[in-house]
Write a structure and sequence with these properties.
eight-stranded mixed beta sheet; binds zinc ion; 22% strand; globular; 16 strands; alpha/beta
């Protein structure tokens, strides 16, 4: 790959928007970042990027197939649990081939939104009734291939899912496809997933509902011995907490802490319904929190106490989770806006922290500590947002996270490769058409 140079009208460096920045990329890495380089002095071979250029964005929590439910069933009264029934009906229809097609289009939507790396929390492992495919990792392989097709990196957070309730009831119906029988069998299967450029294999404990306490250490130990990130859904719904208190006499966070599952390589997803002791345990252990504001509002989950978690010592990243929306700017400002609703106060998260949530915190949480910032040596991921659209016109570049949407992303570079140019995906010709067809195939 030849040396490439980009001149950024504005670039996000050292926690702020800086004008007139020239970045040099060689072999997928930034090799120089210089400023100010006035417009008149820009080398002729440099690509000029108008607007604000951020490091590529990390979507730290995704279930790709949930995208099929956007705008389908939003008018149905119910709860998280009735939505889950609809989600299971989609899961029941997918096979490796159809999932690759659907996920490719979903990841193309992510690339167009400036996302250069996705954390795919993957539990749809096996065939109908739980029978393994000839390749027991066929579904995971489909997701890895889909990310490559769409030009983004992926951390496949292969998820251990063993029971249907906190008190250990067996899997039933569509859930049979999620189960490996034991954490040991899960680890054996996951260990066979191949490594490849742009792919990383991580681990996940689905939740206290799906992994008994006695099985959790094996998952945590697999993650530790493979230097892999470990993610886990925590206290998304009050019913999970109630069941945990009845069965274990402890909150989900306390159970995870007691099994050694918390720590600086762990990310707790949602963390909505927490006690003071839970917040302290998460903060003291250095656990990262991934909140998913648009999904948490869509599924009536509640408001995560993010500023309290920040005070406790946690870092915060974000994910689009069920993909009710794929827009990391909406997720980022959702962190602050939800806290305004919860606390009655404004300005709890500075715009610079919200930018960190979608880049500098998310990539390390997915096992890519060399991504998420524009600096010499980092992976050359860029996401350029136009500042002259009807939504962003007039905003200060430092506060663009409160104005921009995914539709304002114009240029995306992943590991030095241009994936989106002038708002068009270069690897997937018609992503909207592909997405519609893939969804129609699983939700006629
Ligand atoms: Zn999730």
């Amino acid at each position: 790959m030849p040396v490439t140079r980009y001149w950024c009208q504005w670039a996000w460096i050292t926690g702020a928007a800086v004008a007139d920045v020239l970045v040099t990329v060689d072999n997928g890495r930034f090799t120089a970042v210089d400023w100010p380089v006035p417009s008149a002095a820009v080398p002729a071979d440099a690509t000029r990027l108008s607007g604000l250029t951020l490091a590529g964005l990390a979507n730290s929590h995704s279930h790709a197939f949930h995208r099929a439910l956007r705008g389908r069933g939003s008018d149905v009264a119910g709860t998280f649990w009735t939505w889950r029934d609809a989600m299971y009906r989609v899961a029941a229809r997918l096979d490796p081939e159809s999932y690759r097609v659907l996920a490719r289009a979903v990841y193309a939507e992510m690339a167009l939104a400036g996302i250069t790396c996705v954390g795919e929390f993957h539990y749809l492992h096996h065939g109908p009734h739980g029978a393994p495919y000839d390749d027991p990792n066929a579904m995971g392989a489909a997701l890895l291939a889909a990310a490559s097709d769409a030009g983004i990196r992926i951390t496949l957070l292969d998820t251990c899912y063993l029971t249907s309730t906190v008190d250990g009831q067996p899997l039933a119906g569509p859930q049979l496809r999620f189960g490996d029988g034991s954490a040991t069998a899960w680890a054996q299967r996951v260990s066979a997933l191949p490594a490849a450029p742009g792919h990383r294999i991580g681990a996940a404990i689905h939740s206290v509902r799906a992994v008994p306490e006695a099985q959790m250490p094996a998952v945590a130990e697999w993650a530790a011995s493979n230097a892999a990130p470990l993610h886990v859904h925590v206290s998304e719904q009050p019913a999970e907490n109630r069941a945990s208190l009845v069965h274990y006499g402890r909150t989900p966070t306390a159970v995870l802490a007691d099994t050694g599952a918390l720590g600086p390589h762990t990310t707790a997803v949602h963390a909505v319904h927490l006690t003071d002791a839970d917040r302290a345990a998460l903060g003291d252990s250095g656990t990262t929190i991934c909140v998913c504001p648009t999904t948490e509002r869509d599924l009536a989950d509640g408001l995560a106490p993010t500023s309290s978690l920040l005070d406790a010592g946690c870092e915060i990243c974000v994910g689009s989770d069920s993909h009710a929306v794929v827009d990391m700017f909406e997720e980022a400002r959702g962190v602050e806006l939800h806290e305004r609703l919860r606390t009655g106060r404004r300005g709890l998260f500075a715009p610079a922290y919200l930018v960190a949530a979608i880049a500098g915190v998310g990539h390390p949480a997915l096992g890519w500590p060399d991504a998420g910032y524009i600096g010499v040596g980092a992976r050359a991921d860029l996401a350029t947002v136009a500042l002259d659209t009807i939504r962003t016109a007039g905003c200060h570049p430092d506060e663009a996270v409160f104005a921009a949407t995914a539709a304002d992303v114009r240029h995306v570079v992943v590991d030095g490769r241009v994936v989106v140019r002038d708002g068009r995906h270069l690897l997937v010709d018609e992503p909207a058409h592909d997405l519609a067809e893939a969804i129609a195939a699983v939700l006629p």
